[in-house]
Write a structure and sequence with these properties.
By secondary structure, the chain is an alpha/beta fold. It folds into two domains: about 15-235, Spore Coat Polysaccharide Biosynthesis Protein SpsA, Chain A, CATH 3.90.550; about 240-364. It has 15 helices and ten strands. It has helices spanning about 25-40, 60-70, 85-95, 110-120, 160-170, 185-190, 205-215, 235-240, 240-265, 270-290, 290-295, 300-310, 320, 325-340, 345-364; strands at about 15-25, 45-50, 70-75, 100, 105-110, 130, 130-135, 140-150, 180-185, 225-230. Helix 9 packs parallel to helix 12 (about 300-310). The radius of gyration is 22 Å and the shape is globular. The N and C termini lie far apart (about 90 Å).
Length: about 375
């Protein structure tokens, strides 16, 4: 008597992709966004719609989609002024193996989920899969740029530190948009990678940490994401520049702390200190002291926000400062002195006018 054993296979219940879409005041755009997901040939996805209190009918529109297709899942929250809360809540609710961050006024290209699935399946299990983005200028009405942080001839796989140094070698500021990268959900959960609530410009805070912590980074060169740039009413175009300084101060203060922690770990590549130092200090100098910022942002606001930036004093800042070029080191020291010495503020502003003039001459 022959007994045949029946092999039971567990039915797959988790989707391949979880698409996280923050939605606030995007009624004119969100249908096109969700239609771009719904039209995909690849069907193994869930779409998590984080709706913050809106001034228009955004919530009503997304609930229409959820009522017709259970893969659209709506959750709500109070208005926060950024995508951070919805992205964090989306990460917590997601069940997919890989996460896609899609803003409610952007879209994804036709057939792109299938292409992404096939490319990821060819090299499974990486923590991050950087892709490319098509920049659609809302005022020009056309795609003006295809942005990929990794040239076509880049090697197929990096460690996180290798990728950080590689990007820094070809781009001035190595903080890719979150939307450019497909993330393995378990990687974000294991490393407790989240955005800071209410923070605008969170890419500069999230991306360097995620990239550094990744064990495997596999560029896909897939221009799947269409980023609507320069539209009226977006967070980027509507926020007052002086109001961004607080966010920038929080971003870089937490990055200083992150570097202090990372650089104390065994085997830390000291080249990363120079890479981050150059990027972060030059950006701070621009945001606080470029001529137009000096002209339009009140001195009291610069002093107040620099107080946030240097809340831990000089200890977290000094190692970064010691890794950069002499001109940038002088700029960093000037910023620190500006925060604490009222009598030096006018001379330091004069220094920065000269600093940026010389930089412009050198670049021309």
């Amino acid at each position: 008597m022959v007994i045949f054993a029946q092999t039971m296979t567990k039915e797959k219940t988790e989707p391949f992709f979880s698409i996280i879409v923050p939605c606030c005041d995007v009624e004119p755009y969100v249908r096109e966004c969700l239609d771009s997901v719904l039209r995909q040939d690849f069907r193994d996805w869930e779409c998590l719609l984080g709706v913050e209190t809106s001034k228009d009918r955004t919530e009503a529109v997304v609930r229409e989609y959820a009522a017709k297709d259970p893969r659209f899942k709506v959750f709500t929250g109070p208005r926060s002024g950024s995508c951070s809360a919805s992205r964090n809540a989306g990460i917590d609710r997601a069940t997919g193996e890989y996460l896609i961050f899609l803003d409610g006024d952007d879209t994804i290209t036709e057939g792109s989920l299938q292409r992404l699935h096939d490319k990821i399946s060819a090299r499974p299990g990486a923590d991050l899969y950087p892709c490319a983005v098509q920049v659609l200028d809302a005022k020009a009405g056309k795609v003006t740029e295809i942005r990929d942080n990794y040239p076509a001839d880049a090697k197929p796989e990096f460690t996180g530190p290798e990728a950080t140094l590689y990007i820094a070698g070809i781009r001035k500021h190595p903080h890719p948009m979150m939307q450019l990268t497909i993330c393995r959900r378990a990687f974000l959960v294991e490393n407790k990678l989240r955005c800071i609530h209410g923070l605008r410009g969170q890419d500069r805070q999230f991306s360097p940490r995620a990239l550094y912590l990744a064990k495997r980074v596999c560029p896909l060169h897939e221009p799947f994401y269409v980023y609507l740039y320069n539209r009226t009413g977006s967070v980027v175009t509507s926020v007052n520049k002086k109001d961004l300084l607080k966010d920038e101060a929080i971003i870089h203060q937490t990055l200083f702390e992150f570097h202090s922690l990372a650089s104390s770990s065994p085997g830390f590549d000291r080249r990363l200190t120079a890479c981050w130092g150059k990027s972060w200090i030059s950006w701070i100098a621009y945001m606080w002291f470029s001529p137009l910022r000096i002209k339009h942002i009140p001195r009291a606001r610069r002093v107040e926000t620099l107080g946030i930036l240097f809340k831990n004093g000089y200890a977290d800042f000094a190692p970064l400062l010691g890794s950069v070029s002499t001109p940038l080191r002088l700029a960093g020291k000037a910023m620190y002195l500006y925060a604490g010495h009222p009598l030096l503020r006018i001379p330091i502003e004069m220094f920065f006018r000269l600093y940026f003039l010389l930089a412009k001459i050198k670049a021309s």
